[in-house]
Write a structure and sequence with these properties.
Length: about 270
């Protein structure tokens, strides 16, 4: 019997263009409930534009996008806002307010969308910060007082503020040192396992693909060229795919992942 998977995002025949510059044409993609999908592709292939289209920040020229069972472009403002509250988004720059400390940053969506009092929202914000592994005292710190890794964790805490069903991450490990990036990769998997959300993850980071992703989607030739496990995708006959997965960095990431599996004791 074939296993059926719940689809939380369905993209069909997506076309995006800026003037004459066609970014996507006939792009199809599914995101399944509970998975971490890694979206990769060469620079400028439209990974961020795809993410922005799915969350409604970029209006496609044509095509359909269904998110959590709803066609985004047919929704009225109120319904759309209700759906948007079921997303968490971590943009490349982190997007924390620099004039607010961390607990104030994370309290904002809780006050705005859940109607919590400031005291309750800040108490819940401290829980979210702890979930992402930040020490208690970080709650009163301002973004400028934190390391890059801590800013990423705080931004993740903000993205998790409303207990999202789908988390969108754009290059979450960019700018982190390898140890910080590996810790972030592990954190993401731990939180997904514990909280059960689904992840759409744009990345260039091969280590992240090996450490965190259940499935990979490769953007190439204006569409999703292939989706599948790392092993399936890496054998695709495409110049970029071969250079990326089977070039020196791809081989190093693969060897590192295999060594990790060999050295991890079985339960
Ligand atoms: N608002 C915009 N106006 C015009 N062109 C845009 C706009 N947004 C994106 N583009 C163009 O669309 C293309 C895809 O951009 P996008 O940022 O999605 O690429 P990407 O795959 O995420 O790249 P990278 O890996 O370098 O971050 C690029 O050529 C970019 O210049």
């Amino acid at each position: 019997m074939a296993l059926t998977r719940d689809t939380v995002i369905e993209v069909r025949g997506l076309e995006n263009r800026f003037g004459n510059h066609v970014i996507h044409q006939g792009l199809d993609l599914d995101l399944y409930k509970g998975e971490i999908l890694g979206v990769v592709g060469g620079s400028g292939t439209g990974k961020t534009v795809l993410l922005r289209s799915i969350i409604g920040l970029n209006k496609p020229a044509s095509g359909h996008i269904r998110v959590l069972g709803k066609d985004l472009d047919t929704l009225k403002a109120r319904e759309r806002s209700a759906i948007e509250q079921r997303f968490g988004v971590l943009f490349q720059g982190g997007a924390l307010f620099t004039s607010l400390n961390l607990q104030e940053n994370i309290a904002i969506p809780l006050i705005e969308h859940k109607g919590l009092s400031r005291a309750d929202a800040e108490a819940l914000a401290r829980v979210k910060l702890a979930l992402t592994g930040l020490p208690q005292e970080a709650a009163l710190k301002y973004p400028s007082e934190l390391s890059g890794g801590m800013v990423k964790r705080a931004s993740l805490a903000r993205a998790l503020a409303l207990d999202p069903e789908i988390l969108f991450l754009d290059e979450p490990t960019a700018g982190l040192d390898p140890i910080g990036a590996a810790a972030f990769d592990r954190l993401l998997v731990t939180l997904r396992d514990a909280l059960g959300f689904t992840v759409f993850l744009v990345t260039h980071d091969l280590d992240t693909l090996y450490a965190s992703c259940d499935r990979i989607a490769v953007l190439s030739q204006k569409k999703v060229l292939v989706t599948g496990t790392l092993e399936q995708v890496a054998t695709t006959d495409d110049k970029w795919v071969q250079a990326y997965f089977n070039g020196p960095r791809g081989r190093a990431a693969s060897h590192a992942a295999q060594a990790l599996i060999r050295n991890t004791p079985r339960e």
